[in-house]
Amino acid sequence: MAEYIGIKGSTFQTLASDPPAPIEGQVWYNSTSTVLKGYAASTAAWAAGENLNEGRGTAGAASNAPASAALYFGGEPPMTTATESYNGSTWTEVNDLNTARYGMAGFGTQTAAVSAGGGNPDQASVETWDGTSWTAATALPGIKSNSNGVGISTAGLVYGGIIGTTLQASTASWNGSAWTVGGSMNTSGDKRGGFGLNTAAICAGGETPSPTVNVESYDGTSWSEENNILTSSSGQGSSGIQTQGMIYGGYPPSTLAVTETWNGTSWTEVADLATGRSSLRGCGTTTTAALAIGGEPSGSSVEEWADPFLAVKTFTAT
């Protein structure tokens, strides 16, 4: 039988305690706990994060913010102006939106974000966030709610949504001060997930009018059909960029915990949320770190996605 030194080129150490800063692939024997340990990547998974101060769903989020620096605003029930900022461990209440609303499109980062449209009633009003306060800005070119937003505060995209009872396929691009109408989606719908930038976006799922598997990509001018998600869903959270993103949660008709990742070509089902929920929002620009925020019926709960993360592992007999 081959010995470890022959396979790895070194022997493992005997230590009284785990090393303070191990490296990936390191193996050692802990003489205090009398077990063999190693340092390796864990399986991708959701873990409980810090709860929101005010539980709510159907809110807006700074969709291009990293998972460790999120911004979450508005929502219901009851309809609120509340805005909360996340530093990776704690949610802090900051200055409120000027107008209470839910179902708005949100995009940008923790220090520079946009809240566009929303209800109730359906509205076209827009507010921008500078890291301290919200300011009224140029209204959307159409009144609507339940849209999705992607991009940054000076280059954002709002697509889909609903006006009254009429589903929308319209797209509007934001340059930091004004809106430009873009190419229409192939399929009208609201409560759609999606991620990316204003010139490179993905739209996934939503109500068209039933929960759908439809996926489309946007190149800054027009929308193209892409490979469908695996499970029809609406009102899901989402995060990432056009070639590397993920969606999670949603409903048809009960709440879902399903999570799917996108590699630019196809979707793969991965580890579920711990709690099924819909009407949530997500933050994160990669598929290695994301934040699933609020929703229904979970309210204030938040989950953090890590893929992969390094951790100390104890070797056990199989």
Features:
318 residues; mainly beta; Neuraminidase; 2 domains; 4-stranded antiparallel beta sheet; 1 helix; 2% helix
Describe this structure in words.
The chain is an all-beta fold and 318 residues long. It folds into 2 domains: 4-41, no CATH class; 45-306, 6 Propeller (Neuraminidase). Helices cover 2% and strands 40% of the residues. It has a 4-stranded mixed sheet, with no helix packed on it. The protein has a 4-stranded antiparallel sheet with strand order 4-29-28-27, with no helix packed on it. A hairpin with a 4-residue loop joins strand 2 and strand 3.
Write a brief caption for the model.
It is built from one helix and 30 strands.
Helix content: under 10%
Rg over CA atoms, rounded to whole Å, is: 22 Å
Strand-pairing-aware structural class: mainly beta
CA distance, first residue to last residue: 18 Å
Instruction: Count the DSSP helices.
Output: 1
CATH architecture of the largest domain: 6 Propeller
Q: Roughly what is the average pLDDT, rounded to an integer? A: 93
> In CATH's first tier, which class of the largest domain applies?
Mainly Beta
C-alpha geometry:
globular
Oligomer: single chain
* β-strand number: 30
The CATH homologous superfamily of the largest domain: Kelch-type beta propeller
Count of the separate structural domains: 2
What fraction strand?
35-45%
Which sheet architecture does the biggest sheet show?
4 strands, mixed
Q: Report the uncertain regions.
A: none
Main sheet strand line-up: 1-2-3-30
Predict the CATH topology of the largest domain.
Neuraminidase
